[in-house]
Amino acid sequence: MIKRIFFICAISFLMISCGSSKNVSTTYQKRVPPVTPKEVEVVSTKTNGTLTEKEEVTVADKIVWTAVTYKGVPYRFGGMTKRGMDCSGLIFTSFKQRNVPIARTSHQMYVQGENISLREVQRGDLLFFKTSRKRGRVNHVGLVTSVDNGDIRFIHSTTSQGVIVTSLHENYWKRAFIKAKRVL
């Protein structure tokens, strides 16, 4: 009987912890209703605890914030939870949590959206890579988190380090890069 109660408590704890979400930003506390990709929301920002200005928060911002909450999660082929994720699982889950539909695999995502040049890349765009010689197609995807003076940073899940933020200027990723796409 005690084992059964312990098992039920453990399962309940796991379900509650998996269903909870972290606040990504301390300045954006209220629950946001589902939005379409083209909607923009204005929220107040705080500097040193005082209200200073208004800032636009896009769906792309929210998707990136969601993706960043998975930073440090280990790699797991086919994974879509904090217990483990693959690259497309990270993107799929981050978009899904913000009620934006997207395909599940990197190859399927690659056929969505419009092609853009690296000069046009902005936060929320997708970067596609071919990292394996065995497959003749796209097999890796990352989500652009920032563009600063030409440095494009993206979040993705790697087999060696799990979910991380990387610069596109790193030689490995520069060589493996295929195309940038805008899906929002």
Helix and strand element order? HEEHEEHHEEEEEHE
pLDDT < 50 runs, ≥5 residues = 5-44
From the 3D coordinates, which CATH architecture of the domain at 59-182 would you assign? Answer: Alpha-Beta Complex
Report strand %.
Answer: 25-35%
The CATH homologous superfamily of the domain at 59-182 is named: endopeptidase domain like (from Nostoc punctiforme)
What is the CATH topology assignment of the domain at 59-182?
Answer: endopeptidase fold (from Nostoc punctiforme)
Q: Which percent bin holds the helix content?
A: 25-40%
Based on Cα principal axes, name the global outline.
globular
Rg to the nearest angstrom? Answer: 18 Å
Major sheet characteristics: 6 strands, antiparallel
Helix run count:
5
**Class derived from helix and strand content:** alpha+beta
Name of the top-level CATH class of the domain at 59-182: Alpha Beta
Strand order of the largest sheet: 5-10-6-7-8-9
* CA-CA gap between termini: 52 Å
- Count all strands and give the number: 10
Question: What would you note in describing this structure?
Answer:
The protein has 184 residues and is α+β, with helices and mostly antiparallel strands. The protein has a domain of 124 residues: Alpha-Beta Complex (endopeptidase fold (from Nostoc punctiforme)). Helices cover 27% and strands 31% of the residues. The strands form three sheets. Strands 5-10-6-7-8-9 form a six-stranded antiparallel beta sheet. A two-stranded antiparallel ribbon has the order 1-2. Strands 3-4 form a two-stranded antiparallel sheet. About 22% of the residues have low confidence.
